[in-house]
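Researcher: Here's the sequence for the chain we discussed earlier.
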Amino acid sequence: MLLTLAWGSLFFPGLFALSTWALRRWRPAWSYNDCVMVGTRIVSSVQAVLATGAGIIIIRSCSNVVSDRHWLAREYVWFLIPYMVYDCYAMYLCDWCRIKEQNPGHSFVFRNFLSQNRLMITHHMVILFVLVPVAQKFRGDIGDFFVGCIFTAELSTPFVSLGRVLIQRKQQHTLLYKVNGIITLTSFFFCRILLFPFMYWSYGQHQGLSLLQVPYSIPFFCNVANALLIAPQIYWFSLLCKKALRLFNTPQDKKDG
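Model: Thanks. This is the structure I predict for it:
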């Protein structure tokens, strides 16, 4: 545990520092804000790839969705904790750099950062102080399969990150941005929305239950936890859909409307 925490504490900030340094050398025309923002997206994407890979390995190794075990189901959670702490700092740094670049005389207030990022910060705090104890202690020796499923939800993150980078670089008019937008919507829907019915279905297959019977056959707190997890995903998916509608709403469409 301690060794994994230490590796995570070195890996994610180190990768961010290396990415930012490399971008400042390779893209000298970019502002410091650009390099910081892209650096954070690189780290987020790398973490997403690692988490998805760990999730796939766990899922494939657990033929019994309740009792089968895989060491990654616990070990990667320890590796994830430093990332969540780092990511909170990275969000703060991105906001600070953006405001200082747009308005050098502006006095950045930490309170404003908290108010403008309430949902994301709450999401991180729930993971750290609720999901981590559940995953590492309270679930006992069962459920590695479902932990692996949760890890695979990160599959959409690299595409979300690429979209943010393209927006930062004012590339919204490009074909790459539109194609990436379609992939983002698709991967987000499958990996962050349909993931939850899939977990219920998998449990039902194991127990000989229909999908509709599963919520009534598992502990109440499991349903509550899944509801708390899927609620922000649905909200973020709705925001992605609105952006997609604006992107593909051509001037002709507006005229016809």
